[in-house]
Specification:
Helices cover about 30% and strands about 10% of the residues. The strands form seven sheets. Strands 14-1-2-17 form a four-stranded antiparallel β-sheet. A three-stranded antiparallel β-sheet has the order 5-6-7. A hairpin with a 7-residue loop joins β1 and β2 (about 25-30). The chain starts with 6 loop residues before the first strand and ends in a 12-residue tail after the last helix. The protein has 15 helices and 17 strands. The protein has a domain at about 5-60 and about 360-525.
């Protein structure tokens, strides 16, 4: 379990993420951070496909993007009908943007998704780029998805009052009645036909059950899921449910599943084996694509939609066509300078900035029981925790301290966070544990964070390949210095006013005039820098289990891909080769020949 403290402040020598003159200032870091490379630094896995590895289009496996939903006109009409009567309840429950966003159509860019999957690290739930780490965070789930980070668990039972229990029973009876028809399952089409415009006393709860089953937790295929009924009842009464952590856990799980599937297909292709199988990606991965559009300007559609003041941010990308880019991977790998670490602190089109806790100047916010909900939500963004998904055996680790710059915080060496994933209840307790800080630092709205010099050298050393680079397709090659393009040397200026981050009027930077050469790797011993960078040590354990398969039992069981826990420490090549060989043997034996979508009983 991570401790209850969220951040720490200390004076450090800093540089920009892409390289600059070192300067001394008071910096703010997310915990846990490590102040020496000799400490327990949690290094990510740097594996990536070799240039000779098969491209995604050349692989024979198929992906069913079950969670990528295109809204139907009938659904849009139902949303408009319910909006007039229930919009205030949606706002109270923290789902207004999420419900309205379900009317948006995000066209899938398959190549972009798979290039991001290649960057996915199973041990850290982050994407590892040559210029740093980044990932989808709870902030992305809240801003892009419109989901609340606060509220009850998705496993909370329905309220015990008589009316709520009656509504629950009516929903269950309606579902059972549909299952008794020739369809033999609670299909979403029959559900919307039954309730839309019916004037039923439970139409709102039925509407929310459809929305949750199709757009939020779509792992059951085209069926209405029983386990969303308690959530529907609570939301219909204006009660907040923490949907953001559950949705993000599902996204992490689907990205991991795709990562393993691509590795298995490449392994089969390299060995001229049959790799023809189908994978079910049940999370709403459209958020991953929009996340990339928000942060990589060169990958954006040419004409994003200009949204209105009361529209959700996702509407900015509705019906946007994908860009024609020759080599997406090159764009991603060279995006260190253009990457938007904080895209949500600026307005989008005509939209009003909804992140009210970010001001033009830095400040310290007092933490307490009477803390503003927006501020409490921001603390959840910043704190390492466990995320519990609604799908069975879906508990994922959330490590925002690895991507601190996405929140305007400075980046130091990321520390190790032990897992607290014994079961869903224990993991949820970790997510809602008390906040230990007496006050929280909130950076200026437009502030661009920096990295410590030791982080810069540590990250540079890993990319220079002074250790062997392991690849998921089973091959090993020694990385050379040519594979890493060092950052440009920043020339000295007579004034510090041109340095980035000058909007942070509360921080004083002491610039160090130095001839330190980033290309040579020489240290700043005169200023207290360590002369060596130790090998990256232990990684955070990351266990991922895939279950389900041919058996029944439960709503929307997942397909069996691999029943194995990945050991993150070392992430050795030999172990990964054994894992992939085992997966290939399963493919060859035909054990993947199973229905992808289980019938819901």
């Amino acid at each position: 379990m991570a401790d209850n403290l969220v951040m720490e402040e200390r004076e450090e020598f800093m540089v920009s993420p892409t390289g600059s003159r070192p300067f001394l200032r008071s910096a703010h870091f997310l915990r846990p951070s490590v102040t020496s490379t000799a400490g327990p630094v949690a290094a990510p896995s740097l594996e990536s496909p070799t240039p000779s590895a098969a491209k995604h289009k050349e692989l024979s496996f198929q992906v069913n993007f079950l969670g990528w939903r295109i809204p139907q006109e009938k659904w849009k009409t139902w949303v408009d009908q319910m909006h007039s009567s229930h919009h205030s309840t949606w706002r109270k429950a923290g789902i207004y943007d999420a419900v309205v966003s379900s009317k948006c159509c995000i066209h899938r860019h398959r190549d972009l998704i798979f290039n991001l999957v290649d960057k996915w690290c199973l041990s850290t739930n982050t994407m590892v780029f040559p210029w740093g780490e980044a990932t989808l965070t709870l902030e992305d789930a809240a801003v892009l998805g419109g989901f609340s980070v606060l509220g009850h668990s998705v496993f909370a039972p329905s309220p015990e009052d008589g009316n709520s229990q009656e509504v629950m029973q009516e929903l269950l009876d309606a579902r059972s009645a549909i299952c008794k028809t020739n369809a033999r399952n609670a299909g979403q089409y029959m559900w919307i036909t039954e309730f839309m415009g019916s004037g039923s006393e439970i139409e709102h709860e039925a509407f929310l059950a459809y929305w949750l089953s199709r757009f939020v937790f779509p792992f059951s295929g085209k069926s209405i899921i029983r386990r969303v009924f308690p959530i529907s009842v609570r939301l219909a009464r204006g009660t907040k449910i923490a949907l953001a952590p559950a949705v993000l856990a599902g996204i992490y799980k689907s990205l991991t599943l795709l990562k393993v599937a691509v590795a298995a297909a490449r392994m089969a292709s390299a060995q001229s084996q049959d790799g023809d199988f189908e994978i079910l990606a049940s999370a709403p991965l459209a958020l991953v694509q929009v996340w990339a559009w928000e942060r990589f300007p060169s990958l954006r559609p040419r004409k994003p939609v200009c949204v209105g003041q009361d529209e959700p941010r996702l509407a900015r990308w509705s019906n946007s066509k994908k860009s024609k880019i020759e080599d997406i991977l090159v764009k991603i790998d060279s995006a260190g300078e253009e990457f938007q670490w904080r895209p949500y602190t600026t307005t989008a089109g005509n939209a009003v900035l909804k992140m009210n806790y970010y001001k033009d100047r830095e400040y310290w916010a007092v933490v307490g029981s009477d803390m503003d909900e927006d501020l409490e939500g921001m603390v959840r963004f910043l704190r390492a925790s466990e995320l519990v998904g609604l799908e069975e055996d879906c508990i994922e680790q959330y490590l925002p301290h690895r991507v601190a710059m996405q929140f305007g915080m400075d980046q130091d060496l990321p520390g190790h966070v032990p897992r607290v994933n014994v079961n869903a209840d224990v993991a949820w307790g970790d997510y809602i544990r008390p906040i230990g800080d007496a006050k929280i630092y909130v950076p200026p709205r437009l502030f661009e964070a920096d990295v410590t010099t030791r982080y810069f050298k540590w990250w540079r050393k890993m990319n220079l390949g002074q250790r062997k680079k392991n690849t998921w397709d089973g091959s090993v090659e020694e990385a050379t210095k040519d594979e890493f393009v060092p950052p440009p040397r920043v020339q000295s200026t007579s004034s510090s006013s041109n340095e980035k981050g000058s909007c942070n009027k509360g921080s004083k930077r002491k610039y160090v005039e130095s001839s330190w050469d980033y290309d040579s790797g020489d240290s700043l011993s005169d200023h207290g820098f360590e002369k060596t960078v130790a090998e990256s040590s232990s990684m955070a354990n990351h266990e991922t289990n895939w279950s389900g398969g041919g058996g029944g039992g439960g709503d929307g069981a997942s397909p069996v891909i691999l029943n194995r826990s990945f050991e993150a420490i070392g992430f050795g090549l030999e172990e990964r080769v054994k894992t992939i060989e085992k997966l290939c043997s399963l493919l060859k034996s035909g054990k993947f020949d199973m229905p992808l979508i289980q019938s819901v009983t």
